[in-house]
């Protein structure tokens, strides 16, 4: 059985084991290694991708359920020379450390801000609970997000 | 991985050993050498529909959809809170109502205590046909091979809430969870009360002794704690996340907290 | 040219909030960590690990596994006969004859796919006869305990002078002054306390991972490490090859926190690369990463103090038992640190310390951010509060009177320079106000506040640097530093080089570790990168500068003393625009003397201790002390034992902050990790000798909702031999967090919060009067009984 889907706009015909995770296919077959395998159980959010525009954890999604779906990974967000507003705020506030959680963090929080243009600090933090980070202690990331929250039009 | 397009198909595959696959948040963490049968191709399983005061929820409704749909329904706030505070935002987009109920070896399903106090019935389909049964009965005596298709919530008149105790503020299973549905007279006398407890024992269950003791009373918080302590017959489950004694030790406090929420003037 | 005259200028130029150059790629998912090497043609490796804490290996049969699909090679103990270790060589690569911990490698398989490697590893036939196990230090120190290393006396000693014996892997002692006399006085109050901490897991998001290749008869190891030179050394040692045959390079590292301050997976992958002639990837699964984490060690601590009514500490005796697990590892070194952490903070008129690494049949422990310091500071600060309660003195007043200042002696008799802690304490008090008598929050929870002090140090040691000037006027800095996330390689180092050469930091290319190209280095850890590599870089810059100025002076017909490097130009002092571009000078230099480069080196200056005080120590005194004052307010829910941190405030001695924003990031991240350590992160060891917490579902690292904005003040100006007066700032933020939270919680609940982590069930038990039993039958109240060196 072949599963047809798109990944970052490119069509993919997948005919391997349908139980394989999207994360494994992204990383090992397509070499899209921006999604990280960290906990492998859905707790950490480092493998977050957009499935039809909604952030989900790629480690728990089997390929067999993705027929007709459109996947966006961090590599497919914006263009190489163009950061989105969340990425730009993270650069401007210099919040990145080891960086392993950030692709997932960017995808989760870009979606959150698109849905919640004027969030409170607490709402930002609640939205971030599925994206764990071991380096930063979060608050400076929250500062960065809070700084762009009112400027939603900048989000691509 | 097989995609069922009808319930009969799902039942057939289940009979030949396939594991039902809903949101996948449990299935994908188990052994990968099993055949799965997905339910997402079966029409109607993601439905959220009010019928009179009754609410019908498809088994594939996600936690996120549930929390969103119930966000303005104070009577079913317990379920909205349980769904909205479970797991993480991304997992709430994937995990389903049916999966939460049907993962039988999971002691801490968030939705189940809330469903219990809201008087939920479940609709199951077996080889013999379609059957509605109270959730409590379903949990007590798990039926043979079946597909759980819907949950029906009766009309509500009171208020409800859900208290979820964790070590951290998010991102983990509850150490203890308590749902409460309350109907009170204007003078504060408890007219109807349902309490269910999750995560403390192997499966969530109601707390009938405490419910019975409090109906007709107007308890103050201190008395409430005392009664809850005296009437607790829970045997706490020892597990890595918390010792059993702790799960039962905190219950009076959770009862008091839920009660205070439901009797606070502004409601929530 | 006068160094003194240029220092303020260099400092001014160096200080800036330079943003990270690696942020864009990290945010776009383009950064390739070691785990991201998924290229076709790689072989994948998987371990077969022991699932027993202690046993005799009867049989390991790989024949069937070898015949399975995709399998290319299997390695076992016979492929790596050497032993390695710190201080003592006690650690084989694979379990050999005996298994000493659950998870110990028995064999490793390389196959075409990871699934094939795992299947073959599982198919290896293993027969192990169970032996009695010691899972706790109490069991290991019992009179009839089985020896975990029966052959301990035959091991190669890598550092002389320590007492060892039985299940005590290493013992470091400090004896200064006459504590017996102090404790015997009739005008002292004797205060005794016991303290216990569990393990903490680093949880780097990139697990330990390596890709090894065998090229032209040499090993090339690409690895996620903090210590490329240690990896080179250990790999060579256990494989029995010359060190020069091993090359180590390091891509971006996805978090370390000390876990990667030791060689780990690299030799296994190297063996498989040699056996197969192919590139081999070996990556810990998350479960393996957790279950074999070289954790911050659990420790059992007894402190006794003889204190006068006016708060003088006449005598202090302490025993610190550090669980090293099945092999000595980092704990052997860390026994040294007790002298400076538990023996730190306060003036002691006499002191005796016993700091012991104890073998158990549990996974080996390792280094973790402010290792040893975190729990000794917890024990010391709780003990200090217990002293204050016993003699009826205000805890802040006691600390003000006793903290070490200019000219005071440390535990090993080193003389401290400068008053640092007391002014920091005063600043904290002024800034945060005195402790009031609040006992409850407005919503009825129990309220507590505490202020603690802590002493940490910079682990200096040797570093080397080369600076090459490029024709375009940029400079390339070549060192063995690696970027583990802290930003040192992309912020403070290019800032230092740029300030020295009159460049913008963007024009400083930073080459990360390649042991074929960069000089030897102790590694990235211990807060040492900015200090040691920074100092070596400054020295390299000095050579570059001198060469540049010599050529420029010729060109500009002036003396070198009249020239300054500024904004990419060589200018004549006081005459901006009169000079020439650095490119022009470089071009001239190529013609005159060849391309300009400079090399520099740094090593520990070696502050003296009092002779004869310390035995079994790797360093006798600390070259760069670092001090911290933390203040925390918290609320405890009496119904659940849940703790909420209401405020957290830090005054941190940074020497000089070159990049204040980056230091802030370290403080926010370090304190948050400390909150996890203090409250949530628990590791328990079950009857099989394995950790109960195998992944993110049970091991609880803080989420965004479990921290808060950390208030901070960077205290500048304390003495430091670091470049431009810097001290490392990344390690120390975690130092006092467990201490401060425990002290505040003790005040809130009125109970002895002497065990970490303070999980909600533990706090509930404390409030119920059912706290832990910390009587410690394995630690004698007679100090000398807790030593080998001084036992009767």
Automatic annotation (TrEMBL), chain A:
PROSITE patterns: 2FE2S_FER_1, 2FE2S_FER_2. It comes from the Bacteria. GO terms for molecular function: 2 iron, 2 sulfur cluster binding; metal ion binding; oxidoreductase activity. InterPro entries: 2Fe-2S-bd (IPR002888), 2Fe-2S-bd_dom_sf (IPR036884), 2Fe-2S_ferredoxin-like_sf (IPR036010), 2Fe-2S_ferredoxin-type (IPR001041), 2Fe2S_fd_BS (IPR006058), Beta-grasp_dom_sf (IPR012675), Diverse_Oxidoreductases (IPR051452). SUPFAM superfamilies: 2Fe-2S ferredoxin-like, CO dehydrogenase ISP C-domain like. Gene3D superfamilies: 3.10.20.30, [2Fe-2S]-binding domain (1.10.150.120). It holds the Pfam family Fer2_2. Residues 1-77 form the 2Fe-2S ferredoxin-type domain. Keywords: 2Fe-2S, Iron, Iron-sulfur, Metal-binding, Oxidoreductase. PANTHER family: OXIDOREDUCTASE WITH IRON-SULFUR SUBUNIT. This is Purine hydroxylase delta subunit apoprotein. It comes from Pseudooceanicola nitratireducens. The lineage of its organism: Bacteria, Pseudomonadati, Pseudomonadota, Alphaproteobacteria, Rhodobacterales.
UniProtKB/TrEMBL annotation, chain B:
Pfam families: CO_deh_flav_C, FAD_binding_5. SMART domains: CO_deh_flav_C (SM01092). InterPro entries: CO_DH_flav_C, CO_DH_flav_C_dom_sf, Diverse_Substr_Oxidored, FAD-bd_PCMH, FAD-bd_PCMH-like_sf, FAD-bd_PCMH_sub2, Mopterin_DH_FAD-bd. Residues 1-158 form the FAD-binding PCMH-type domain. It comes from the Bacteria. One of its GO terms (molecular function) is FAD binding. Transmembrane segments: none annotated. Keywords: FAD, Flavoprotein, Oxidoreductase. This is Carbon-monoxide dehydrogenase medium subunit.
Automatic annotation (TrEMBL), chain C:
PANTHER family: XANTHINE DEHYDROGENASE (PTHR11908), XANTHINE DEHYDROGENASE SUBUNIT D-RELATED (PTHR11908:SF157). InterPro entries: Ald_Oxase/Xan_DH_a/b, Ald_Oxase/Xan_DH_a/b_sf, Ald_Oxase/xanthine_DH-like, AldOxase/xan_DH_MoCoBD1, AldOxase/xan_DH_MoCoBD2, AldOxase/xan_DH_Mopterin-bd_sf. It comes from the Bacteria. Residues 28-132 form the Aldehyde oxidase/xanthine dehydrogenase a/b hammerhead domain. It holds the Pfam family Ald_Xan_dh_C. GO terms for molecular function: iron ion binding; oxidoreductase activity. It comes from Pseudooceanicola nitratireducens. Transmembrane segments: none annotated. This is CO or xanthine dehydrogenase, Mo-binding subunit.
